[in-house]
Amino acid sequence: MKRTTAAFGLSAILAGLAVFGATPATAADAPAQVGNTSQCSATPLTMAYYRTWRDVTVPQSANSNLPDPNVTRMTDLPPEVDVAMVFDAGATAGTDYWRALRDEYVPALHARGTRAVYTLWIDKLAKANIPLTEQAYRDYAQQLVDTYVTPYGLDGIDIDVESYPTGDNLTRAIGVFRALGALLGPTSGTDKILIFDTNQNGDTPLFEAVSDKVSFVLLQAYGRGAARLPATWNTFADDIAPCQFLPGFSFPEEQDRTHWGDAEGIYDPATAPSSTAYGYATWQPAEGAKGGFFAYAVDRDGKVWGDNTITPTSFTWMKNLSAVQDDAAGVAPKAPTAALAADRVTISGVGAPGATVEVAVTGPGRLPSPASATAAVDGRWSITLDRKLTVPQTASITQRLAHTASSEPVTVRFQPEEG
After folding, report:
1. What's the rounded Cα separation, in Å, for the pair 381 and 355?
2. 44-86: per-residue pLDDT in tens?
3. Contact at 8 Å (CB) between 89 and 120?
4. CA 173, CA 273: separation in Å to the nearest integer?
5. Domain end: 279, 304, 329, which one?
6. Residue 276's pLDDT is what?
7. What values do phi and psi take at 46, rounded to 5?
8. What is the structure's pLDDT at 416?
9. How many CB atoms lie within 10 A of CB 77?
10. Residue 23 domain flag
């Protein structure tokens, strides 16, 4: 709709100029596209940093003195997560995590459409023991891919930039990053992604030298609030497109001395709109739709600051914020899951939190009436029809958010057991 409206407005302006003898603008006068959007998504992305040292395959005792064992598997991540970062800052060497990542987690994530990338710190590039030559940069970039991506079937690399390399370290970091751009990212000719993840502005010498090789920029905007995002975005806007920019928040880590206050406790639709995390999900740059949002320490979804226990999470913030982001962007949700109970009148499943789920039945005979329900904060919904489904009637289930069209339908049927 926006594209159609914009095209109509431009046609009207050009027609008006022609009437008064003015020379219309030409394609050569149009501003050049900023950034490389070849790996942008048509819909906003939800990304999450998964802390490897809190995976169930890793002994809790290897990383802290907390008494509770780890309880979360990487495959517990909700399907709303489009890209998961393998964030390895703990003592995981020699644990079963890396076998599980290769043999279980990545195949399962891929099967449902979630990509996974490995996080490296910028010092891994800047302080590498290699000479300052193009060939050394290429060789080292290939070594990084061969070490951290290929063995696990991962989908790219995320470079965490929280320091400011200078001198030879800056030269080396730029050289290796650009060499990685020949193997990953929008100029590589592959579907592998290359992420620049930072708490800095976009006017640093490092970023300006590598911005054309970047798939996405993830801004660690922890605790800042959405009101401060436009000023930071403006420092990136000359080098990347809005669809490459994702602001992010942090869940409260255990034993953390910093209280970001971005998202705490179980998601509450009444109070969440005042949170930093909600503000990031709904905020948009003036120039166009952002690429999405991300969360750090996703396994702590639902925790409050100061709670050091290790317990399972139902990912209520991630599920709800993903729906909020889609709704704000006018993007119809995916089809919900649905199953027919043995009583032939109860249909239940999981959808987008807050979505209106609608059921309509078609087929011969007397039909159940159309029915609807609202998906709960965890996405679960249930509808009881006023008549039983009979053969060969089909129930079609869709869901929609407040400002979106309906999803594609999912269908269920009563299938009697063969005697």
Report:
1. 9
2. 999 999 999 999 999 998 888 999 999 999 999 999 999 999 9
3. no
4. 40
5. 329
6. 98
7. -115, 120
8. 86
9. 24
10. no
Contact between 401 and 326 under an 8 Å Cβ cutoff? The reply is: yes
Which pair of tokens denotes residue 393?
A: 């009637």
- Beta-carbon count within 10 A of 338 CB: 23
The string of pLDDT tens digits covering residues 384-397 is 999 999 999 999 99
* Whether the model pTM is above 0.90: no
Give the tokens for residue 379: 């996405």
Residue bearing the bigger pLDDT, 5 or 250: 250
In this prediction, residues 128-141 reach a mean pLDDT of 98
Provide the annotated active-site residues. Answer: 162
Q: Are residue 317 and residue 347 in the same domain, yes or no? A: no
Instruction: Name the pairing type of β-strands 410-413 and 394-400.
Output: antiparallel
Residues 59 and 167 in one domain: yes
Token pair for 118: 């490995």
The domain that holds 297 is classified in CATH as 3.20.20.80
> Which range is least confidently modeled, 20-34, 62-76, 271-285, 299-313?
20-34
CATH number at residue 354: 2.60.40
Overall number of domains in the chain:
2
Residue 138 CA to residue 180 CA, distance in Å, equals 7
Structural domain span for residue 309: 45-329
Beta pairing class for 83-87 and 115-121: parallel
Classify the C-alpha dihedral 129-131-137-138 as positive or negative.
negative
Residue where the block lists tokens 């000023």: 231
The answer to whether position 334 is within a domain reads: no
Task: Give the separation between CA 250 and CA 254, rounded to whole angstroms.
Answer: 12
Residue 354 shares a structural domain with residue 235: no
